[in-house]
Every structure is written in structure tokens, then in C-alpha cells.
Amino acid sequence: MDTLLRCPICHELLDSAVGNQVCGHVFCSLCIRRYLTSTKTCPICFEGLEDRQLSKYGLIDGLVASFKVARGEIYRALESHSKAVEKKYIKEIGEEICDIDSGKVAKSGLLLAGKRKEINVECPNCSEYFMEREINSHLDACLSYKAEKGDSKTIETAPSLNDIFGKKRMIKKMPKPNKLVYSMLSESKLRKICKELGIPSNGSKQQMEARHSEWINRYLANEDSSAPKPHSKLLNDLNKWEHAVISKPPQKNPLMENANTDTFDAKEYYKSSLLIFLISSIKCAQLIYMPFL
Amino acid sequence: MNDPVPGIQAIPHEDNLRYFSVVIDGPSQSPYEGGHFKLELYLPEEYPMGPPKVRFLTKIYHPNTDKLGRICLDILKDRWSPALQIRTVLLSIQALLSAPNPDDPLSNDVAENWKTNEKEAIETAKEWTAKYAV
User: Fold this and answer.
1) Where are the domains of chain B?
2) Residue A188 sits in the same domain as residue A167
3) Which residues are within 8 A (CB) of B58 and not within 5 positions of it... i.e. 6 or more apart?
4) Where is the SAP domain positioned along the sequence (chain A) (predicted)?
5) Does A162 touch chain B (CB under 8 A)?
6) In A, which residues are within 8 Å of B53 by CB distance?
7) What pLDDT score was predicted for residue A255?
8) Which fold has domain B8-132?
């Protein structure tokens, strides 16, 4: 079950699962959209694939959600079981050591307790990770937030104009982005489009291109989700993503750079020429110092 | 990696988790049998949307590698797919050792030798394995 519900690209549990009618392979919406930005084939069978051929599989999202809950329950059950076993173990060890040295009992007990570290658990509702002891208080808050949202949905169907306008004001909806051919756009035009979409419009053209295409992927992936995030949260995520990408210095593998023929040969060449230079300088030194010796 | 592949070992570096030290054992019934070939594998920023970079560190006589250890393999270039993993890449390299492809060479002289005098080429590959990879 665990392997079946994982995305072949990121190997996480599927998030907003989408598949296509051509070959039926299923991915996270954001993963496959990011890939299709550069290559128009299915990553598994190499069939031609366009992002408009993707359709969302709500059933799989439901399966993943219930699997997450079940997994948490299994984990808790296992943990309480292992705790019981551990207690028994401590008791047994304690009894054994008690005969030899009573001081050690506390020590061994402490050691075992220390091994049982605080474990982060995933919230089944929002998928964020929390310390085990904080999860209950978080769940209360998280679920009540959902309930509030649920309430506002029911209000939406009510015919009262006030409520509809109230909701509209509450959730700021951002315009749907369209795909662009960046090479055909000037920097100022792209900046204007970014501004109109409500996403940051600073930085170079290259940065804006990357940001814009990531925004399209995130926006559409959010639409595929069974529990779409509000756009303000989505924008926040985009900023976080950009920050992570920019703040990371471009990692280069120094060893892999040797694979370049030029530098490799040059190094060898310099090494040998350095050797010749050293030998000749030693010879020179010998010649110079010889009379004094 | 949930279950390790026999004959393949990949260990990430402590200071750079994107960089792996790899050892592939020469497949049986190939000229590389008995050899332990060291490779380096690097996951670039684009991974998994782009392929990992792999090269041999141990000298190897093979038509699809060059003298710097770079490997000519379709999945490391244009046939890369994000559904491939480090595991599958290393398995493909192991398979490439079992089945050299002199029609798509990286070292022309090795490939030429492989095509014209396969026996001698295999002998040389065996010699190099014994000399550098054991």
C-alpha cells in the first residue's frame, strides 16, 4: 500500500494525484507539471504527454488521506506496544542488576528512556510535522480551522448577497496564470504580467521567468488538489521556494570538474613542467653552491 | 534504498549528501568479473528533473567509457526520466559492463579494437581489471 501510493518522481505519498488517459501513470500534480515544463513525455513509458492531458484522481487523494490516518494509528499502536515491552525489559534488567549494584538500576532505566527520543508526527489534516506532545493541541486548532472553512462554504450556497460578498472579500482570489513564451516577451512586459498576477515582480528577467513558470505549476497543482490552499498560502509557498533556491549557493562538485578534458590535461601538463622546473632549479642550486662546499 | 542490490554499494559523503562513493562489482561472465570498480555519483541541483552525474574512478577498458571515466549511457543523457533512481542508474551501469556497446562508443580506439578483434579486446579488459580493479 505504502509503495503503491507513492509518486514515482518524488517518492513521497501522492499529493494531488493526477494521471493521464494515454498511459494511466499517476504522479503528484506539481511533480509532473514541473517535469512537463521541460519535457513533453511520460517519465515512465516515454509516451508523448502534454499537461492538458492530465486529469485529477480524487479517489487516490482520498486513499492517501485515509492511509495517512491509518498509518498514524498503526504507528501509535506499535509504539504503545514497544513501550510495554520496554517497560518489561527495564524491569527485568533492573531486577538482574539489583542484585549486583542497586545504583545501576536507575542508570540503565535512564539510558533506555533516553533512547526513546521525541518523535515528530505528521498532522493527518495539514501534513505538517509536530512534536508528539504537541500534536493533540495542534489537531484541535487545525480541525477547527477546517470546520470554519467548511462553514463558510455552506454560507456560500445561501442566497444572501451579504454573505457572498463577505466571503469574496475574505478569500482573495488571484487571477489564473497563462503559459507564456518567454523569449517573445520583453522584460518590462513580463514584469507587468507578474504584477497583474499578484506575484513578486522584482529581479532579473531570468528570475521572473523561473518564478512565473513555477507559479503556473503551483497554481494548477493547487487546482488539482482535493483540499486547495488559499492563494495567500500559495503565494507564501512560492516565496519560500524562491528563497530556498536563491539563498542556496550553486553547488558544484569539485571532483566532477576534473572530468573536463582541458583542465585534466592542463593539470598533468603543469605537474610535469613543475617537476622539470624543480629538477633544473636544484641543479642550478647545486652549481651555485658547489664552490662553497 | 530499501533493499540493497548485490554487487552495488553507494555511500553518501558526510559533508555533502549529494555526493556518493559507489563501488560496482564486475558482473560474472564478463571481462570485468572479480573487479571492484569505484565510481563517483553526484546529484546536481536539477535532480530528479535532470540526471545524476556519474563517472568511473577506477581505470576500465570499455568502449562506452573514456579515459577520464565518463560514461556514455542514454539514461544519463537524453533518455533520463525523473522516475529513474540512483539504484536504477547504477544497475544500468552494471548492465553496461555485461554488454558493451561498441556501436555507440566514447573511446574510439577501444571500440575499434572491440569491433575488429573482440577476443583481444576482452583479453585487455580482463588484464586491466586484474591490474586496476582488484
Assistant:
1) 8-132
2) no
3) B35, B36, B37, B38, B39, B69, B132, B133
4) 182-216
5) no
6) 253, 256
7) 53
8) Ubiquitin Conjugating Enzyme (3.10.110)
